[in-house]
Amino acid sequence: MKRLLFIAATLISSATWSQLTTTNPDTVCYQTNTLSTYTVPSVGTGTYTWTIPACATLVSGQGTNSIQVNWSSCPAGLINNAISVAYSSTSGCSATPVTLGVLIYQVTPSITPIGPFCANAPCVTLAATPAGGVFTGTGVTGNQYCPGTSNSLITYTYTNGGCTFTAQTGAQVNPIPVLSPIQHN
């Protein structure tokens, strides 16, 4: 779960909020890490009012200085001003709301299909897009696949921007036919 800290408004009481660790926009990995926690430091016993887009779900924390948001129903792409938080103190003073954009990051890797193979076929070079990922599976070494005696499942894992995406393909391996000796009848 990703934890973010952000602050950027001045309270009427002169307490100052300043940005700590979040880059705007925040990045959320599409369908892999869709539950995120957002926090502002507590400035008192007032009320925090959070606003998020309709595609997201506020799981917990409304009214507090920390919320959890589920982004799984949101499409990939940038949502400007996706999160907004306002604060009202118990004395009725309000802070200027602060906002944060959210980039729902998605990459759809693909593997160039291979095979089918005979069990004695030579090794082949694997290819996938985007480049820079890692291949794994039975018969895989680096970016080479060497057929064995059974079918294989090859996985390609691509990591970027703190997000990990995968693609899979099968490699069919057919047995080598064996002829019986020639017989004279």
Question: What report would you give on this structure?
Answer:
It is built from no helices and 18 strands. The chain has 185 residues and is mainly beta. It folds into two domains: 2-105, Immunoglobulin-like (Sandwich); 110-174. Strands 1-3-6-5 form a four-stranded mixed sheet, with no helix packed on it. Strands 2-8-7-4 form a four-stranded mixed sheet, with no helix packed on it. A hairpin with a 2-residue loop joins β14 (140-141) and β15 (144-145).
Main traits of this protein?
18 strands; 0% helix; 4-stranded mixed beta sheet; mainly beta; 185 residues; disordered N terminus; Immunoglobulin-like
Structure described in brief:
By secondary structure, the protein is mainly beta.
As laid out across the biggest beta sheet, the strand order is 1-3-6-5
Portion in strands: 35-45%
The count of DSSP E runs of length 2 or more, i.e. the number of strands, is 18
- What number of domains? 2
Q: Supply the helix-strand structural class.
A: mainly beta
Give the overall form. Answer: rod-shaped
